[in-house]
Structure formats: C-alpha cells, structure tokens
Design a protein that fits this description.
Order of helices and strands: HHEHEHEHEHEEHEHEHHEHEEH
Radius of gyration: 20 Å
Distance between the termini: 60 Å
Strand content: 15-25%
Largest sheet: 11 strands, mixed
Structural class: alpha/beta
Strand order of the largest sheet: 3-2-1-4-11-10-5-6-9-7-8
Length: 321
C-alpha cells in the first residue's frame, strides 16, 4: 500500500475541525435522534454530546438504545429516551417531537434514509415548508482550500428548473451559515458553452439569469461550467473563462442525483475526501448520516446543523424585533 503524502495527511479533517470549533462557540442544540441502535450511530451521538454540539433526545426501542449506549461507553442516565417499537415508529415519533417544538434538528440513527425522509415529507404529519427539501454534501477534500458543498446528490432525482432554484438557495443559505465570506455557485454541466443538445447547459444559463433578476440571492452564480473549470483556476485560465466563480466555486450544483452521487463518491473514494451530509428546506435541519460515515463526518454534520440552527435563531429574533 502506498502511503498518502505527508501534507495530505496533515490537512485531513482540517476543514471539519474548523467547522466543529466554530459550532462549539454556539449554544448546543436539542437534537431528536431517530433509532440510534448501533455502535456507529450511537458513537456519533455520544461524541457530539461530549463536544457540547448537541443535547440529544433518543427515540427507539429503549433496551436496544441502552445496549448500544453501553457498548460505546455512553452514559445516558441524564438523557431523555422516548420509546418506539421499531424503526418506522422511531421516524414518526422523532418527527412528531420536532413538530411539537422539542428540538432544533433531527438526526438519522441506524434506520434507512427512506424511512426517516418518508416521515419528514409526509403531507399529513411531516415537517415540510414552502421551500423544496434538498440535500447537501459538505466535502472535506484533502489539498482543496475550502469545504465544497455539492447539491443535490441524495434527495431530488431529476429536479426541474423551479426545484433547482430552491436547491441552490438552500445551499447558499447553508454556506452563509457556515461562515463563508463570499458564496460562489457553479452550475455544472459537461461543458461551459450553452447548447440545445445538452439541456443542463440551458438550465444553467437560465438559473444565472434568474440570479441576476433576484430570484436567487446571496451568491454569485455562473454556469454552465465543467467541473475542472469550476474548481481549478488553471483550467479556467486555459479555457479563457473570465468569471469570479470559475476556478473558485465553493458550491457545485449538479444536473441530477446520479451525477451528484458519482461526483461525491469519486471524491470520497479516489481523493480520500470526507462527506458530511445535511438536508435543508424542512422546519429544522436533518442530519443525514450514512452507515459508512467516519466519526469525523458525523461530527461535521452535527456542527453544520448547529450553525444552521443558530442562523435560524438569529433570523427569528430579527423578525420579532
């Protein structure tokens, strides 16, 4: 096995460490955790609690939760545990607690994503808002200077133009919550020229015009851009693309879920990037972790939720005033 370069090892998790440190300056948030019944999910909850990122409410079969906590050495004596018979019931009960105003975020435990998201988007009992729900990966890519937000690679399969407006706005709001000084959005396609032969290039051009008209706010948009032109200043210079976004994007908007999923997993498995995940557009941020996520990724997902919740809290105070 070839060892990673020393500089790559030194910078691993650096961006996540900065996110967690920033989140620790905020007030810990109440988080409902749906079905944390295995080592991986419970370990993430335990460490996020220890770091004062979250104050958990654990929902699921009580005995299984106690066993999982004992296995990772997590003392839940002072933690609220809400009994639910199985994973579907855990999802429903967790969302019910959010609807009741008991928490500022919802976290996936060891149940399937579809189970949790089904409860979130339920028309009768879910926590949807007028904004389209979408997912963001926050990628910590070794050797890349800033976290990369990729959207949407997990929720919206083939979003239309109107859906992409919300997907982009969710990502922009996330970047601001994370403290980005300037948000630069690249609308990705296979090329940087607009052509009727590639529909995603037309959508990219339309989205940029919508941003010019104030239909998308808080960022600079450019597109269509190929991936290399979006993140590499050298590639953008070779193509003679003059844009404040080209080569410096911190949000990458993909044409569809398949493209986004492949991009995120390529970065994870080929570039050894870590991927934190969060769902936005619901009443509260949803911390969406995978069974394969590292502890660092789980903590970064919690940290991002803390910062989103803090931004919502500040906005609510300004609205009241």
């Amino acid at each position: 096995m070839v060892d990673a370069p020393k500089d790559a090892v030194a910078t691993r998790h650096e961006k996540y460490d900065e996110l967690i440190a920033a989140a620790q300056k905020q007030t810990a948030i109440k988080v409902v955790v749906a079905h944390p019944c295995d080592d991986a999910s419970m370990r993430g909850v335990a460490e996020a609690t220890r770091l004062r990122l979250i104050e958990p409410i654990l929902v699921g079969p009580v005995e299984r939760i106690r066993r999982a906590a004992a296995e990772v050495g997590f003392d839940i004596g002072g933690v609220e545990v809400v009994d639910a018979e199985h994973s579907h019931a855990s999802a429903a009960k967790a969302v019910e607690l959010v609807r009741a105003g008991r928490a500022e975020a919802l976290m996936k435990g060891s149940l399937h994503t579809d189970e949790l998201m089904g409860a979130v988007v339920s028309s009768a009992s879910g926590i949807r808002t007028e904004r389209r729900i979408s997912h963001c990966f926050i990628m910590d890519v070794p050797g890349h200077p800033d976290p990369l937000i990729i959207t949407d690679a997990a929720v919206n399969i083939a979003p239309d133009l109107d859906a992409k407006v919300d997907i982009i706005q969710n990502a922009i709001d996330l970047a601001h919550a994370m403290g980005a000084e300037q948000v630069r959005v690249a609308i990705l396609s296979a090329m940087e020229t607009v052509t009727a032969k590639v529909p995603s290039t037309i959508e990219a051009a339309a989205l940029c015009k919508m941003a010019e008209r104030g239909q998308i706010t808080g960022a600079i948009l450019d597109g269509p851009l190929a991936l290399d032109n979006a993140i590499s200043p050298e590639a953008a210079a070779i193509k003679k693309i003059a844009s404040p976004v080209a080569g410096h994007a911190n949000i990458l908007v993909v044409p569809d879920l398949e493209a986004g999923n492949m991009l995120a997993k390529s970065l994870s498995f080929l570039a050894k990037a870590d991927a934190a995940g969060i769902v936005l557009g619901a009443r509260v941020p949803v911390i969406l972790t995978s069974r394969a996520d590292s502890l660092s990724s789980r903590l970064a997902s919690c940290a991002v939720a803390v910062m989103v919740a803090a931004t919502k809290r500040k906005a609510a105070v300004h609205t009241v005033q």
